[in-house]
Give the backbone structure.
Amino acid sequence: MARHAERRLLMGLVLGAHGIKGVVRVLSYAATPEDIAAYGPLEDETGARRLTLKVVGKARGAVLAAVDGIGDRDAATALRGTKLYVLRSLLPPPEEGEFYWDDLVGLRAELADGSALGEVVAVHDYGAGASLEVKREKGPAVMVPFTDRTVPSVDLDGGRLVVDPPAGLLATPASEGAGVEEGE
């Protein structure tokens, strides 16, 4: 896992100001949202600015955090949209069978027979469970449910994972307008 030693992980997003004293609302991507401040200062997208947060509460699906050096609503509002990153090396190692999503990006996706499917380019979670976006070697990208059934094996050290797709998952959709005659 040395390939991730100095990588940064997206931990959250500043949604906006809360109140008048410089507190911000943060959408936290940590497993326990309040832990966003537990790993030390966070960096903005450029890495040029470091922000030290102190979680002070929760509101509307976000954590509320005081930010060192931010003391009023205008300064807090200016942080809106700031993505918050932490060095991967500062996070604890995942438990057996668990993965940081970032660890999955870049892995080769192979079918159970060893044939190449493509590469994991993103992990998404829209609320119904995580899905892997796999850029296929041939054909359009495919979304693969990240379940034990569909992805029975993840080998981080080997840089690969195995996909056992349910029937129809890898079918290429018919081209738009196929079967429709001109003038209909």
Notes: Residues 1-5, 176-184 have pLDDT under 50 and may be disordered. The CA atoms of residues 18 and 24 lie 5 Å apart. The chain is about 5% helix and 40% strand.
